[in-house]
Amino acid sequence: MTNSEKKQRNPGGRTRPALGAFSGAVAGFAALAVAELVSGWVRPQAGPVVAVGGAAIDRTPASVKAWAIRNFGSNDKLVLQLGILFVLALFALALGVLALRYRRTGSAGVLVFGAVGAAAAISRPDRTGLTDTLPSAAGAVVGAGLLFLLVGRLRIRGPAPSGPQAAEGDTFRRPRPERREFVLAASAAVAASVGAGALGRALAGSSGRDAVASREDLVLPAPGSPAPAVPAGTRLRVPGVSPFTTPNRDFYRVDTALVVPKVDATAWRLRIHGRGVARPVTLSFDDLSRRDLIERDITLTCVSNEVGGPYVGNARWIGVRLADLLAECGVEPPSAGGPADQLVARSVDGMTLGSPVEDVMDGRDALLAVGMNGEPLPFEHGFPVRMVVPGLYGYVSACKWIEDLELTTFDAYDPYWVKRGWARRAPVKTQSRIDTPKPFARPGAGTVMVAGVAWAQHRGIDKVEIRVDDGPWHQAHLAAEDSRDTWRQWSYPWQATKGGHTLTVRATDRTGAVQTAERARTVPDGAGGRHSVVVTVD
Fold it and tell me: What separation in angstroms does the CA of 213 have from each of 201, 208, 325, 348?
């Protein structure tokens, strides 16, 4: 067959796959936009990208989660969603090319997108029912129909080829002047999809309007037990050291929520029930606000924090003492004969965390917090109510958006992270960090101030030491201690000499335990080892 015969038989053949792929991309975009629109009506968490992303997080091994947090930090969720969109884009492009030859098969392939999204949505722990499948299902139906329509605009009905050329749906391409119908249909689809997506975003935003209003209207009550004044000398004036109080905007956030829950404080309820609860109770936010509140400075740490990592922060929290609330419900700690040794906290997004009852009721300032650094909790940090328990890693103590407390046992129930290989009990390990100089810094010779923070919540820091290269340990200057539940700043004036040097820090807690030199990864109960930085002195 000559080239002219090939062009006559398949005009514009080189652009055929590109146009098919473009059709798939338009159909995929429309499917996502419609799903966004419907999820704005149902609930944002039911959208296919969020649902698939959440299901992926649920099934990801702990080591992979730790790797993602270590490499992407608080952007890990954004990276996950972009990855899902990239895979969906490739899937849509491939279906578009397939639909050119197998129109029905390629178009029906879009329904796979809907099936995966619907299955993911219905598998999530915070599912609300079959309505959660509607966004993925609606998007897939629209996407499949649109792909069928667009591919039809690229082809004309005519006599089917015979012999080996015959295949399902094999037809001649439309001549180029007749592709105007395709261009118009694709343009209209894109425009409609943009409008649907924008409307869906608006609906999703309006669904949280009452929650935003409830937070804006909230005036925190004055605590009956205010936090003691921070002692003089607690805050060192060393450039580069972490501030004693971490601003809300800078406080670390590590959780599995791809969409931050926005809970209306006026509609919020907390249920307390389970083993050993003589008087189960359901509390409103007003019920909590009318109780005696306490205010405390408490440092929180994430178990995913690597040695020297950023996932630790100190804030001033205001809330209700959790032990008092449990005692009023008739709860006794195991040491006093109580039948429950685990307090399971459940979040509105389905997250479950398990805390030792003994630790919660041993006299430490375990809180149901309603405020953070003088303002209502930010949504990202658990508004309207979250748990704060000093001395325990966040995954066993710091439930955000809390709505349920159940007394049970460690033998009877494994919470979310325990099912994924993390330890049941996780006291914070003694750690220290060099904030300045930064790794690979090039300070000048002479006095260089080395400074950072150290923490051992609920035990307190007794000593911090610095070592230069393989030399002896030198005791650093410790800032004044606010409480044993907060970190302490430290500094050391190093007489730096020219050349490359390694600075290493270690802390000793109030029990006399020295920070271990043995390296350990974050899984299963927190990282171990000593932080060091390499610098070159000019």
Answer: 18, 9, 28, 19
pLDDT in tens, 110-156: 998 899 999 999 998 888 889 999 999 999 999 999 999 999 888 64
85 Cβ partners below 8 Å, 6+ apart? 49
Residue 165 has pLDDT above 50, yes or no: no
Position 298: which residue type?
I
Residue 302 confidence (pLDDT): 96
Of 427, 430, 423, 354, which Cα lies nearest the Cα of 62?
423
Helix (H) or strand (E) holding 63: helix 62-72
Q: Which two tokens stand for residue 55?
A: 């299901």
SS3 content of the chain, % helix, strand, coil (to 5): 40, 25, 40
Helix (H) or strand (E) holding 183: helix 180-207
Confirm if 533 and 503 have CB atoms less than 8 A apart.
yes
- Residue keyed to tokens 């180029």: 176
* Strands 402-408 and 269-274, bridge-based pairing: parallel
Query: What do you get for the CA distance between the two ends of the chain, in Å?
Result: 74
- Which residues are CB-contacts of 307 (< 8 A; sequence separation ≥ 6)? 431, 519, 527, 528, 529, 530, 531
**Dihedral sign, Cα of residue 184, residue 188, residue 191, residue 193:** negative
Structure tokens at 148: 């069928």
CA–CA distance, 238 with 243 (Å, rounded to integer): 10
Integer Cα distance of 151 and 21 in angstroms: 10
Q: What is the pTM of this model?
A: 0.85
Q: How far apart (Å, rounded) are the C-alpha atoms in residues 142 and 51?
A: 19
Token couple for 80: 């996950």
Tokens of 236: 């060192």
